[in-house]
Amino acid sequence: MNPIRISYFSDVLCVWAYIAQIRLDELKTTFQDKIAIDYHFVPVFGNAHEKLEKNWRDKGGLKGYSDHVQNVAKKFEHITVHPDIWMGAIPSSSMSCHLFLHAIQLLEIKHLVELPDKVFEKATWAFREAFFTKLANVSDRTVQFAIAEELGLPVSAIQKQIDSGEAYAQLAKDFDLVKDLTVSVSPTLIFNEGRQRLNGNVGYRVIEANIRELLHNPPGEQSWC
Fold first, then answer.
1. Residue burial 157-193, b: 16+ Cβ < 10 Å; e: rest
2. Of 145, 155, 163, 222, which has the fewest beta carbons less than 10 angstroms from its beta carbon?
């Protein structure tokens, strides 16, 4: 039986995606080769400054949003958030991160250089963690290179994937999928060729139940649930 394909959309700067990583890790441990996760990005914070200034203007501005993120984080013991989150060097756009991460993903897909196992997933987590715990301005290319070097990744090879336009093409594919599937929330999980989706802060058991249902009732077969 082919694995259940899960399209996973997230924004690197989204606290809910940061929280949800532990659920993805548990899914991979529980289901192993029965699922396959396709990672995509949705630019919730594509224009971070204007988005927050507009949406939080009457709710305390950036300080209000910072307090909101910290209050959310306090509910989850498995994550750490810097007390000055969104108050320090604020990233201009998550799109810069997403482009850089797609360049890393291309190296992994094309086997151009020797890389650590699951390097794209590890790099994505490293970007999230750097922002939420260290206030790293992960939209800045210098910071991105520094994170890549810490992971032992070849900076020049990553830059070539960006310079060639291939990383931009991958990002454009994400934009097309976001539009076609009307994705607006981070994180979003889409199953069963778009027939099922889970948006936002969804508990692990709910995600697991959806996967088990698909495993027990494959697409095209009768289901009485």
1. bbbbbbeeeebeebbeebeebbeebebebbbbbbbbe
2. 222
